[in-house]
Amino acid sequence: MAEHCTNDRQPTFSKPKVELHVHLDGAIRIDTILDVAKQRGILLPADTVAALKGLCTVSEPATLTEFLGKFNQYMHVIAGDRKAIKRIAYEFVEAKAKEGVAYVEVRYSPHFLANSGVEPIPWDQKEGDVTPDEVVRLVNEGLSEGEKAFKVKARSILCCMRHMPNWSMEVVELCKKYRNDGVVAIDLAGDESMNCVAYPGHRNAYEEAVKCGIHRTVHAGEVGPPSVVKEAVDVLKAERIGHGYHTVEDQALYRRLLENNMHFEICPVSSKLTGACDPDFTKHPLIKFKKDKANYSLNTDDPLIFNSTLDTDYATVQKYMGFTDEDFKRLNINAAQASFLPEKEKKDLLNLLYNAYDMVDSTEL
Ligand SMILES: [Zn+2]
């Protein structure tokens, strides 16, 4: 089957990679969901990996509602369970090690994994005692143990949700509290039709992030128009753009972001299956980004839901957009440079890539 091919064959780009845009709750193993459900006595509508996979994944371009509905299938199994939350973080690092990732920034909404101190309590859970704060601690522990076990560097980004502006100030406070414990940035995810003029909670949180030196990325221009990207850059002071495909529809904005070397977190497989872009990859905006030597990375976004690995994205752009090993090296160096690591660690990561790619660090010549 297609999935077997992806797992067994030589990876498209076998050198160390950097991934900047992947959701922890969209990257859970199916067998873990089944296992945790069994332990917690939660009845799922499917009891085999194959059957549950069928319910949790999309294989054809879907609507936003269909896509979001996939999270409803399993989030209630993991949320509110301390062992499960730590486990998915640990297993995430293991999966990235297998994909040849040297450094990953993984993102999630702490509120979506909590069952206490969150209003409303998500996924129809009963109230419990796992708060968003404890969720962050558990994920930090899982990632940190995973780092040691699998020799992958993993940092996290905490997500605000567009439809929940009242959570955002707490998200930035968690970023501040855990900035020395693996949390490197704040993100804003969800329905792009909800802008920050109407929902000032996000703007206030991002102002606080700027004030406190918390790094900032924003999902923008994925499905939404270029105006959402403009708002992300001008109002929320985003340093990177999640997706940003529709930026190209506003020439002036696109040119400005190219000049400013804005980093775009591109997720090719995701962009097709969420209906964000034309399903014909030969018409993908990434082709323009590549031609214009834009600054971007390649990312999985939600590999559980797209039944994909990072290699699926690399293979896709190789096959349909003519990406070569040189292109892969360049975009991974851009990803490392756009990472939210402190300068010293960023330099170490860049050196690791330069060595693995047989390149000399041009800044040191
Ligand atoms: Zn995303």
From TrEMBL:
GO cellular component: anchoring junction; cytoplasmic vesicle lumen; lysosome; plasma membrane
EC number, as in UniProt: 3.5.4.4
Superkingdom: Eukaryota
Parts of the chain that traverse the membrane: none
Cofactor: Zn(2+)
PANTHER family for this protein: ADENOSINE DEAMINASE (PTHR11409)
Homology family: Belongs to the metallo-dependent hydrolases superfamily. Adenosine and AMP deaminases family.
Name of the protein in question: Adenosine deaminase
